[in-house]
Amino acid sequence: MSLQIIQTKDGSSSILNIGLNETYHSVHGALQESRHVFIEQGLHYLQNKFGRKALSVFEVGFGTGLNALLAAEFAEKHHIAIHFCAIETFPLSWEVAAQLNYVRLLEWGDATEAFKKIHLSDWDTEDHITKFFSLQKIKGSIHDYVIPPKYNCIFFDAFAPEKQPEMWTRDVLAKATDALNDGGVLVTYCAKGQLRRDLASLNLKVEKLPGPPGKREMTRATKMN
């Protein structure tokens, strides 16, 4: 993979995959996109709705580890135990990830240590990153992995459908949403009509929500009882 570190409009780093001509995050702001889509409309929404003291998250597309870092920050600040599992086919090296500037932008004193542990933790084993946050990284493809049905939240963060269409098929969405507990949610930055129709056909309640800065809409889908 040919990669280039870039700066997005909110000052946070992202990565350009030159071969795909696709960035890992919105060029309008990596940090604000991840916070809005995955933390606010995912974890914070579930906390408010159910008052949970424990959450389980499965992430499709570990990428730079930003979503995991923000989930760890959320867990520590709210004293919510979060078990976070992520699958990634092409992991970044720590040498690349260490050049990203997320920890300098967070008002969380343990961010530097947590981000390093997130990236250097062993693959395919569970590791406690902080008191309230544990991580399991799966090196492989979601097409070959059986997701256990135990999650409250799916972070669906693959590259855009036009760049990686095989990640957005109804079969892949079914595999992901089958792993949700009743009342669990899938959140993604994508708001394409086909995605929403596929999620609705899987008996999920689909919401079209305001997107992060620079993007009009995003999607949240809830697994019904």
How would you portray this structure in words?
- A hairpin with a 5-residue loop joins strand 1 (3-7) and strand 2 (13-17).
- Helix 1 crosses helix 2 and helix 2 (66-78) crosses helix 5 (111-120).
- The chain has helices at 30-50, 66-78, 94-97, 102-105, 111-120, 170-178, 193-201; strands spanning 3-7, 13-17, 22-23, 54-60, 81-88, 126-128, 133-139, 151-156, 180-188, 204-210, 217-223.
- The protein has a single domain, classed as Rossmann fold (3-Layer(aba) Sandwich), CATH 3.40.50.
- The chain is globular, with a radius of gyration of 16 Å.
- It has 225 residues and is an alpha/beta fold.
- The strands form two sheets. Strands 6-7-5-4-8-9-11-10 form an eight-stranded mixed β-sheet, sandwiched between helices. A three-stranded antiparallel β-sheet has the order 1-2-3, with no helix packed on it.
